[in-house]
Amino acid sequence: MLERIREGAQGPVAKVILVLVIITFAFTGVSAYLGGSVDDYVAKVNEREISRADFDRAYQNQRATMEQQFGEMFNLLAADEDYMREMRAGVLDQMIEEQLAIELAAKMGLSQSADSLRRAIRQMPEFQINGQFSNDIYLRQLSNAGFSPTMFRDYLQEQMSRVALMQGAFGSEFVLPNENERLQVLQNERRSGKYAVISAANFFDDVEVSAAEIEEFYFENQDAFRQEEQIQLAYLELDFNDVIASIDIDEDRVRDYYDNNLAAFSSQGSRSIAHILVEFGSDEDAAFARMQDIQNRLNAGEDFAELAATESDDIFSGADGGDLGLLERDTLDPDLEDAGFALSAEGDVSNIVRSEFGFHLVKLTELNEATTQEFAEVAEMIRTNLAREEADRIYFERQQELARITFEVDHTLDEAAEVLGLSVQTSPWLRRDQPTEGYDAPELLRQAFSDDVRELGLNSELVELDERSLVVRAAEYQAPRVLDLAEVTDDIANYLREEKAEQLAAERAANQLEALLAGSAADLEFTEITAAGRFGSELPGAVRQQLFRMQLSESANYVQVTLANGDAAIVALTDVLPGVVDPEQEERTKRQLEGQFAELAYRSLMDALKANAKIERRRL
Q1: Average of pLDDT values for 599-607?
Q2: What is the pLDDT of residue 228?
Q3: pLDDT one-digit tens code per residue, 435-483
Q4: Does the first or last residue of the chain, that is N or C, have fewer Cβ atoms within 10 Å of its Cβ?
């Protein structure tokens, strides 16, 4: 992540993204942070508290991010208390580092200009309608979140200064040409040699395992043979896709719908407006007189955009000639909207309008007339929507019937299957900890292992998945248990034989290696390695790693390694070809090194700040 930030740290896109990250955090709640001291806090950094409320919000944001990344698999992670404890500690540590960076930025005098803050606010999607900044939305959002513009500006100032500090730290890292060259030489190095494999499989038939050894292994490794509870389900499944596939909507019905709902296929047109605002201030009469003066100047021929830039109290829209963007109902003050919709031609300007914010002059800057889509353009969409609407109704009715019958006749699925024309299906064996794909929905597993299904043999409640509804019951159930010795004897025997075979292969390899180092011929079949790269998959991983660990020498150079599958191997290095500098890779390797240096710099900076800070952590 640090490398990516470093790569684009100086670009405008990166700065916008960083600002949006800040604002996302802000609108999940920083009122306690902005509003003053909070008695209940999780940490204190140089006397500044991190409230428990802010920590809880940051932690929930992290959980939401993890759930989005991992989906239903996150439920397994969340069940691990140690993992979640580490995640909570990581969130707190990140908040502490952010506070330390804010304090350092303040000490260094880093600050953002008013123009920079204004531009950042205008780019935030929270304050936009159809991609355009809305001053009205901006004020309402702040009010709803409990912020004043001044409080929000101060918070944004701190966060943008922190980001500027981090960008400066990353941007200060550089790579010397010889460092870049050395990395390429190492990465592009090629090595030649040979290797021979002594397969454990060759010794498998020569190995014997006694009953005593099997029994001893069994009793010493009971946990390895513990089988979790598992269940095999009988179930009825109602699939929405089957329902919708059975529905046919004829052309007359599609045409009737179109004719009766023309408004749905007609655009009401769109219009964009600009405004000039004069706030009430302490003297509403004076504000009205000032707006009358602006109106007179406009009637005298002065340009609306120039007057908005110089006279409007709306500093954001004023910089853009008063532009408020696309006008839609229920997005602005009602009086302002009414004035905008009352204008009939581009360039028209309203009379003075009073709103809760002050007095306005509203100009219609763009007008697009209404249009109606032709029947042929929307016929297929109508047919699809009608089919889905009817399928929704039928699916819901069948779903409720399925739930009713299986509840009233709770000891079998046969009656519901006959009434609804469904067939009883059977699942594979299912386990809580290793659910089978297609049967791994948390709600399905909860019902499958419920007391009613597992112990009482009853039908489950209706399980509603994305576009499927199921009712399940136990076909067979096995409680948790340690498998009997007889059930695992063959598996243990094979495991012990493989283990002994691998040991014999290693011993054989050691004898062959000793002979090779003594200068004797070895009874081995070597595979030649020619100019192998440091990265690749054509060689066994252990062979490649060992090949690039070895030093080239004039005398025989052999080493024994164990492969991932348990086989033994002997590796020899015969030649080293230094890597060649590739100009096309120069920028990539430079970014790679800079990213590593930037990460080291960041960690060093944070370690130093933490060492010199007074940090108090409370139990989470």
Answers
A1: 85
A2: 87
A3: 888 898 889 999 999 999 999 999 999 999 988 999 999 999 999 999 9
A4: N
Reported as a single tens digit per residue, the pLDDT across 526-584 is: 999 999 998 888 899 999 999 999 988 877 689 999 999 999 999 999 999 988 887 87
| Pair of tokens at residue 454 | 């597992």
Q: Which amino acid is residue 287, in one-letter code?
A: A
Based on the domain organization, do 360 and 459 belong to the same domain? no
pLDDT at 70 over 90: no
Query: Quick one: angle between helices 52-70 and 12-26, nearest 10?
Result: 120
Helix (H) or strand (E) holding 464: strand 463-464
Q: For helices 135-145 and 149-171, give the axis angle rounded to 10 degrees.
A: 100
Q: Are residues 168 and 279 in the same domain?
A: no
For 353-362, 482-491, 598-607, which range has the lowest pLDDT when averaged over its residues?
A: 598-607
Chain centre to alpha carbon of residue 485: 46
471 & 497 share domain: no
DSSP-based three-state secondary structure for 442: helix
Quick check: 54 and 25 in contact, CB under 8 A? no
Domain termination residue (choose one: 479, 512, 546): 479
Using an 8 Å Cβ cutoff, are 375 and 255 in contact?
yes
Last residue of a domain, one of 315, 338, 368: 368
The Cα–Cα gap between 162 and 105 comes to 6
CA distance 256 to 249: 12
State the residue range of the domain holding 416.
Answer: 229-240+387-479
Distance CA 101, CA 97 (A): 6
Token duo for residue 413? 């699925």
Q: What confidence tier does 39 reach under pLDDT thresholds 50, 70, 90?
A: low
Cβ–Cβ contacts within 10 Å for residue 553, how many?
A: 8
321 in the Ramachandran plot: left (φ > 0), alpha (ψ -120 to 50) or beta? Answer: left
Same domain, 542 and 516: yes
Among 564, 531, 577, 567, which Cα is nearest to 196's? 567
| Burial category of 200 from C-beta neighbours within 10 Å (exposed 0-12, middle 13-18, buried 19 and up) | buried
Which strand ranges, in their side-by-side order, compose the sheet holding 353-354? 323-327, 270-279, 358-368, 353-354
Task: Read off the pLDDT of residues 214-240 as tens digits, 9 standing for 90 and up.
Answer: 999 999 999 889 888 999 999 999 999
* CA 572 – CA 197 distance, rounded (Å): 12
CA 49 to chain centre: 29
Question: Considering only CA atoms, which of 295, 291, 296, 298 is closest in space to residue 277?
Answer: 291
Q: How far apart are CA 21 and CA 126, in angstroms?
A: 12
The total number of structural domains that make up the chain:
4
Buried-exposed string 87-122: b where 16+ CB fall within 10 A, e elsewhere: bbeebbeebbbbbbbbbbbeeeebebeeebbbbbbb
**pLDDT at position 38 over 70:** no
Q: Who has greater pLDDT, 4 or 608?
A: 608
* pLDDT, greater one: 219 or 23: 219
Question: CA-to-CA distance for 145 and 27, rounded, in angstroms?
Answer: 7
CA atoms within 13 A on the CB side of 544: 14
Asked whether residue 490 falls in the same domain as residue 442, the answer is: no
